[in-house]
Design brief:
Number of helices: 9
Keywords: 2Fe-2S, Iron, Iron-sulfur, Metal-binding
CATH class of the largest domain: Mainly Alpha
GO molecular function, one term: 2 iron, 2 sulfur cluster binding
Shape: globular
Protein name: Putative isoquinoline 1-oxidoreductase (Alpha subunit)oxidoreductase protein
Order of helices and strands: EEHEEHEHHHHHHH
């Protein structure tokens, strides 16, 4: 029995301890935001936080995850108000979306340890292969998320579906709700 905490909930997996964490998350827990390329070739679509460190869930077994704290894209921010998620939308750094969860997880880990990363640090921290080619916008989004995390700016990106802009602003104090004056500019 493998025990760990996933998205702030204690869980037990009665699965082969050699199974990659990825498949336990996707198949046993139905956390399908963590993507799978099938062999670790994508650079990190299956990225999750393991004790706050971004790791490829296809490369860590249930035995290696024993007793650790796992955060998936679903657990990063239930209302999609995390600064990286908002910055990715604001900078239009999302295309097909396949690699996006892993990129957001890697960027969130970077911003957590360094809210003012250089372009080189962003590029080194995000190993994901994005076939859509959003890299320039991705770097801008991570830099912007850092400014939001440092409270240097707000984001007026669209909130998640079903969440009003006002509620999103309450969830993230740095999130600025556009006013009528903004719309006349």
């Amino acid at each position: 029995m493998s025990r760990m905490t996933v998205n702030e909930r204690p869980v037990e997996f009665d699965l082969d301890p050699r199974m990659p964490l990825l498949y336990a998350l996707r198949e046993a827990m139905n956390l399908t935001g963590t993507k799978a390329c099938g062999g670790g070739e994508c650079g990190g679509a299956c990225m999750v936080l393991v004790d706050g460190v971004a790791l490829r869930s296809c490369k860590i077994t249930l035995a290696e995850a024993e007793g650790r704290i796992i955060t998936t894209i679903e657990g990063l921010s239930r209302d999609r108000s995390h600064p990286v998620q908002q910055a990715m939308v604001a900078e239009q750094a999302i295309q097909c979306g396949y690699c996006t969860p892993g990129i957001i997880i890697a960027a969130a880990a970077l911003i957590q340890r360094n809210a003012s990363p250089s372009r080189e640090e962003v590029e080194a921290a995000i190993p994901n292969i994005c076939r859509c080619g959003v890299y320039p916008r991705l770097v801008r989004a991570v830099e912007r998320a850092g400014r939001v995390a440092r409270r240097r700016e707000g984001i007026s990106a669209a909130p998640a579906p079903g969440i009003s802009a006002e509620d999103a602003a309450k969830a993230v104090p740095a999130l600025r709700v556009p006013s009528e004056a903004d719309e006349t500019r």
